[in-house]
C-alpha cells in the first residue's frame, strides 16, 4: 500500500524498462517543458515506485526530471504489491479511461494553451468558430429570406467570430431571440469547419 510522499535523490529511483508507454519527440519535449513551467506538478503527482525504487507510475516524468538535471524527486512507495499487481498498475496508470468533453473545453478552457499542456487537439480546433442556423433560405443579394409557412426548408447560415467570447455572446443572443420570437424553433452551433 502507498506511504507518504518522500523526497529522495533522483539516482535512487530507477526507470522502469518494462513500461510499454512511450512519449517521444515533440510530446516528450512538451512534458519536459511542463516541468519547467509548472515544477509543482511533479510534487502534486509524485512518482510511484515499488520497494526497489523502480517507477510504476510517472516513468516518463522521471525521465523528464533526469533530462532537466533534477537532484531529487518526490515519490510514493507502493509496498506489498505482487508482480502481477505491479504490472497491472503500470498499464492502468497509463490507460486513458475517460474522454474529453470538447464543448466544455471549447467554452470554458479555450483561453488556455491546451496543446502546449499536452492535450491532443482536433485538427479543426484552431479554425475560426462558426454558428450554423437553419433558416428559410437566402436571397440572391445575400440577405436571408424567411418563409415560415408550410414545411421548414433546410438551409444554412454561417457566421464567423473572432473569439470564443464573441461566439458565446452570440449564442446567448440567438437563444434569447428564438425564445422570444420563434417559440419552439431550434438552431445548431458548430465549432470549426464542417468536413465531408
TrEMBL record:
Record-annotated ParB-like N-terminal domain positions: 6-95
A Pfam family this chain is assigned to: ParB_N
Database matches in SUPFAM superfamilies: ParB/Sulfiredoxin
Stored Gene3D superfamilies: Conserved hypothetical protein from pyrococcus furiosus pfu- 392566-001, ParB domain
Superkingdom of origin: Bacteria
Name of the protein described by the UniProt record: ParB-like N-terminal domain-containing protein
Protein source organism: Hymenobacter saemangeumensis
